Task: structure prediction
Amino acid sequence: MPKTARRKKRLDRSVKVRTEGLYALTSWSEITYLLLPRLVLIMGLLSLPFFLDMYWQRVLCAAGIYGLLALGFDFLAEFVGLVCLGGAFFIGAGGYISGLLNAYLGLSPLVCIPIATVAGAVISTLVLVPALRLRGIYFAIVSFMFPLFAVYIIVALSAFGGTEGISALDNLPNQWVEVYLILAAVLVSLFLLRRLVDEDMGLILRAIKDNDQAVKASGISITTYKIRAVFIAALIGCFGGAYLTHLYGWLGISLFGMDFSILPIAATVMGGMGTLAGGVLGALLLTPLSEALRGFGQLRVVLYCFILLLFIVYKPEGFLSYFQRKYHQFELWEEV
Amino acid sequence: MEIIIYGTVNSVIYALIAVGFTLVYGVSRVPNFAHGSIYVLVGFLTWTFINSIHLHYAVAIVLSLLVASFLGLIIYRFVLIRLRGMATSEIIASFAVSLIILEGLRLQGIAGFKGFIGPFYVLPPFFQGKISILGVFVDYQRLIIIAACFVLVAALWIFTHYTKMGLSLRAIAQDERAAMMLGVHADKTAMLSLSIGSALAGLAAVLILPLGNITAEMGYKVLIYALAVCIIGGLGSWVGAILAAFVIGFAMKISTALFGAVWESVVLVGTIILILLVRPSGLLGKQKELEERV
Amino acid sequence: MKAEVILEVNSISKTFGGVHAVSDVSFALGKGEVLGIIGPNGSGKTTLVNLITGFVQPDSGKVIFKASDITGMPSYKIANLGLTRTFQVMRPYYSLPAFKNLIIPLNSPRVKKTRSGRLGDIDAVAIDILEEIGFERDARVPYKPAGSLPLGYLKRLELARCLALSPEVIICDEIFSGLSMSEIAGLLPLLEKLQMQGVTLVMIEHRLRELFRLADRVIVMNFGQKIADGIPEDVMEDEEVKKAYLGRERKK
Result:
């Protein structure tokens, strides 16, 4: 051991009056300092489609869907304490409802998607409610089981096209609508969720995660609030599913596939749990990666899992929190 | 009569599958999502040892069980140990491990181990042949499974009640802090439980797999059955798990006999939802009481 | 009873795996009364509270609050009726600032109903309540994360969380335990003030001297049973109580 130990010293940068996310802005430079990263991300995302060809626009759309799922996962896991291992169920519920409405009733996708979003969310919530009354891993287990059950049931009953699925569904009007619909959905959900977790309802949800006994003693029904939270996450996920069906003009049991459950989790852990935006960024990075690896088939899932494990074990804060810290703080080594 | 015999066989199979998961959860509070994948892995390893290295069947089984328990050890030592206490991360990490093994195996199974394609992976039964019990033909393998289950339960009972190691497992399961104060090493015990649990998954695999093919999908199916049994029986409760195995074993057999095999999954889902609604903590779960204590 | 009975417990029992945590306990609580519940460790006091407030379902017996049967009701509904409790183990919502902790009870149906219309600025209401309970308004204390507060403040926060519901009965589970004499001295006037305002208090305590300053009546429990019930002076003279409770202390 060297005699002089060193330690890392961290100093806050720039904005002088700040406590725990409360800022007192006094100048344009400070406003810019805070807004710049956010604006760069939003504008970057919105202008991205102009630089991409057809194929990569599709990839961006897929990334958007994963981003939505990641938002839902992060919201449930970090702010309500429910680990949802079955994001695929939301995709499947939304996708099947929307696709079936389109195939059997001939409704336009723009009508199907909203209906499927709400109906799918209602169904997903109803299915998950029984697991909400208990704490701990029950929700994780049950949410993990349901997408797989859905597949078994659809295959066994050969309902809704069985293993083959239904193809030749209507697509969205054109590619620009496709791309901007999902980008708008991601940005709006991100914004609304970030607001929500700081509103009273978000506080109550976080309180439930911290100490549900005290919430009960405060006269609040924790089940009701958990149901609401699951419904919100399900809305987001089901929209992704409904959109996905019409993006590819196809529905089938792979909507319940493991990809939709694991990639959003990997993206969230990679981006940083509890940041909400981190999951979206993670999805934007992971999805192109998985496209590039399309030739390897199922190896992709193995890869996500490795990334997931590496991050969760060695860098649990995620890269967004890491960059945030670098952005907001000086770091220097000082001798002690 | 057929329902009774085959219902018993099915129930015993579910009990075998679930007992390892229950053990791990009961002791270390880690939901071992890798349970199903270890099950398949052991089947696959045994097959490989027999067919590629031409080991004797029994040697192959012992060897792959050793690999399984070692794997459980490694999972705990290198992944879970860093995440203790963070429930979210524990769940995600074990889920990721499970997917790595399963999807890795699927790659083997589909892309072809030495060029084989499709359902080629079959373990031979221990003894060929059938026997007629009260007019119903049952093959020896199924009888072996039943016998093995009883032996296993008895052995586990003796292990947990009369050996020092087993007692320390139970101590940690009941009150982690108190056990630690009395010199039980929590991490070592959890590691032990994980490796025993994995070995149990493997044991279930070598007993049950001769009845069918080995596929990667089985991993999910096995995991689901294990989870279903544990939820219905009450997480971490042994007796509950065995009871639940019989409940769903017979429920599914009867429904298959009445409505046909397609309703199996529906019945399973229905049972789970029903149990969660009526008795959220499972048939014999103590979870509820524990969580209500402040 | 002098005053009208607000809470009545009728031969309530609960066993945990063969252990009789609470067996056949009955008492009635008059409006505005301060009732102390004492007893050695493990005598079932906290379980009794859990049973009354719906955190644990009783095996048998009845709890009647304001003439309606609340046995087996979920705890949040009981809290909404105006019967609330503090916890022995302080676990505030660590990640939230102290005053934000009160947002939770302020969002309960009871508060939304009793305080007419919009609450106005809910944060301001929260800070008012904290000031009432002894948080300095101008200091930074109410804005600090609850996890970083000292124990004395946590106990007040816990009480404030109850007060935010404007309850009729508060059950305090060992609110003095772990506090220094000066902290207790700060807390006592608060409780006295509550008593003046007509809030009925049930206090589970080990600190007898402080308890007896407040309590009108004391119940003594041992091994899950009620062994004495009466005014503090009488109860302390009771032979059985001495044997069960004080006798053990004298041996030390």
Observations:
- The first strand of chain C starts at residue 5 and ends at 16.
